[in-house]
């Protein structure tokens, strides 16, 4: 029998808005097939010492029922790069199902979705926040304190005569 590559797997991962911005490590729990440890993926167990080496018959492995793979639940830590967006797909090499008869494992694909944030919205590579000012401040101009994504406070100068829904860049 010929070894066959394992199946690729999909895992849907929902990220916090700020984790998507900054990146970092996430631990996920996946259920997949791994090479059977009892028979090293051969699907057969020894009937006596040396039978495999002499070509003598062997018994079907009890641990994997002759499949050469067993189903396991495992925790996997994955690295999320900074700046990922809704719909990003990440490939985790060789973390899919183990291949049959000792074949190479498939890959794990993470499909990312990103949660909302109470202070910021995203538009491509830009982060947006909304502030309100009084009509008098809009007419005469002013300076306001604005919180940034990293938690610092920056001063933003509002020019005199600014109109509603104007976008300023910080």
Give a brief outline of the structure.
With 170 residues, the protein is mainly β. It is 9% helix and 38% strand.
What descriptive keywords fit this protein?
11 strands, 3-stranded mixed sheet, 9% helix, 170 residues, two-stranded antiparallel ribbon, rod-shaped, mainly beta
Would you count the extended β strands for me? 11
Distance between the termini: 64 Å
Uncertain residue ranges: none
The largest sheet has its strands arranged as 1-7-6
| Radius of gyration using CA atoms only | 28 Å
- Tally of contiguous helical segments: 3
Helix content: under 10%
Shape verdict: rod-shaped
Biggest sheet: strands, sense, closure? 3 strands, mixed
H/E element string? EHEEHEEEEEEHEE
Arithmetic mean of pLDDT: 89
Strand fraction equals 35-45%
Structural class comes to mainly beta
């Amino acid at each position: 029998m010929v070894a066959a590559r394992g199946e690729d797997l999909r895992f849907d991962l929902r990220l916090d808005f700020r984790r998507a911005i900054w990146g970092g490590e996430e631990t996920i729990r996946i259920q997949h097939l791994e090479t059977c440890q009892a028979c090293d993926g051969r699907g057969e167990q020894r009937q006596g010492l040396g039978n495999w080496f002499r070509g003598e018959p062997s018994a079907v492995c009890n641990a994997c029922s002759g499949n050469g793979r067993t189903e396991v639940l495992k925790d996997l830590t994955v690295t999320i790069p900074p700046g990922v967006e809704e719909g990003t797909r990440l490939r985790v090499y060789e973390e899919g199902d183990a291949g049959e008869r000792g074949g190479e494992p498939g890959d794990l694909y993470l499909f990312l979705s990103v949660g909302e944030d109470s202070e910021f919205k995203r538009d491509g590579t830009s982060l947006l926040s909304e502030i309100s000012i009084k009509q008098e401040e809009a007419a005469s101009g002013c300076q306001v304190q604005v919180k940034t994504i990293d938690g610092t406070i920056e001063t933003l100068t509002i020019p005199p005569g600014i109109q509603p829904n104007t976008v300023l860049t910080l």
